[in-house]
Amino acid sequence: QKEVEQNSGPLSVPEGAIASLNCTYSDRVSQSFFWYRQYSGKSPELIMSIYSNGDKEDGRFTAQLNKASQYVSLLIRDSQPSDSATYLCAVSWRGLSSNTGKLIFGQGTTLQVKP
Amino acid sequence: SAVISQKPSRDICQRGTSLTIQCQVDSQVTMMFWYRQQPGQSLTLIATANQGSEATYESGFVIDKFPISRPNLTFSTLTVSNMSPEDSSIYLCSVAGGSGNIQYFGAGTRLSVL
């Protein structure tokens, strides 16, 4: 069973703090990892993609991947109230022999940034 | 990223009826997917819409309940058949293309079944 696990939260941080969101996955052959942000009543929007071990930074967002430990995290620096949303971790499932393109989503972590 | 148009954006339907949701992309894409997001839950993949052939369904989803068409590389439909209140969800189409498996989502269809 391919699984992606996230703490559902809510994770509450004060404005200006660093928010740390974590995700673990069970499929060792997964190669592509994504963080989506979903505001209430809206569809998911891509924030970050990461494919190799280490850190990837984009503005206030940093994704971290550790394939040996099977976890991926998202750091949000200088958190703003507008960052309040549900953050979905998604992992690609390669399948038995080919790239299926399918994503498996975690349950999502609700982030609340308080002014 | 591609521009994805999904319609209807929302609908209220009666039990036992069917609803067809359309997904139109402004460019040709290799892969299209349909997801369901039940209230307060994450996304669950229903099926991969294959161009010119039958869709590939995930465990727990069947063609009789969720028939899917994909006549070309820019368009797909999902039908929710013989609806019950348990089908009340948000249905989302997504597209992926190129390297990296990045998927982009339509705005979703919010379905309520009475």
| SS summary, helix count of chain A | 0
Distance between the termini of chain B: 36 Å
How would you describe the shape of chain A?
Answer: globular
The rounded Rg of chain A comes to 14 Å
Tell me about the biggest sheet of chain B? 7 strands, mixed
Please give the share of residues in helix of chain A: under 10%
Give the C-alpha Rg of chain B: 13 Å
Beta-strand portion of chain A reads: over 45%
The shape of chain B is globular
The low-confidence runs of chain B, each spanning 5 or more residues with pLDDT under 50, are none
User: What would the average pLDDT of chain A be, to the nearest integer?
Assistant: 91
Write the layout of secondary structure elements.
The complex is a heterodimer of chains A (115) and B (114).
Chain A: E1 4-6, E2 11-14, E3 19-25, E4 33-38, E5 45-50, E6 54-58, E7 61-66, E8 71-76, E9 85-93, E10 102-105, E11 109-114
Parallel strand pairs in A: 2-11
Antiparallel strand pairs in A: 1-3, 3-8, 4-5, 4-9, 6-7, 7-8, 9-10, 9-11
Chain B: E1 4-7, E2 10-13, E3 19-25, E4 31-37, E5 43-49, E6 56-57, E7 68-72, E8 75-80, E9 89-96, E10 103-105, E11 109-113
Parallel strand pairs in B: 2-11
Antiparallel strand pairs in B: 1-3, 3-8, 4-5, 4-9, 5-6, 7-8, 9-10, 9-11
What does this structure look like?
- The complex is a heterodimer of chains A (115) and B (114).
- Chain A is mainly β.
- Chain A has strands at residues 4-6, 11-14, 19-25, 33-38, 45-50, 54-58, 61-66, 71-76, 85-93, 102-105, 109-114.
- In chain A, strands 2, 4, 5, 9, 10 and 11 form a six-stranded mixed sheet that branches. A five-stranded antiparallel sheet of chain A has the order 1-3-8-7-6, with no helix packed on it.
- In chain A, strand 6 (54-58) and strand 7 (61-66) form a beta hairpin.
- Chain A is globular, with a radius of gyration of 14 Å.
- Chain B has 114 residues and is mainly beta.
- Chain B has no helices and eleven strands.
- Chain B has strands at 4-7, 10-13, 19-25, 31-37, 43-49, 56-57, 68-72, 75-80, 89-96, 103-105, 109-113.
- In chain B, the strands form two sheets. In chain B, strands 2, 4, 5, 6, 9, 10 and 11 form a seven-stranded mixed sheet that branches. In chain B, strands 1-3-8-7 form a four-stranded antiparallel sheet, with no helix packed on it.
- The chains are: A mainly beta (115), B mainly beta (114).
- The A-B interface holds A 32, 34, 42-46, 49, 51, 88, 90, 92, 99-108 and B 1, 30-31, 33, 41-45, 48, 90, 92, 96, 100-108.
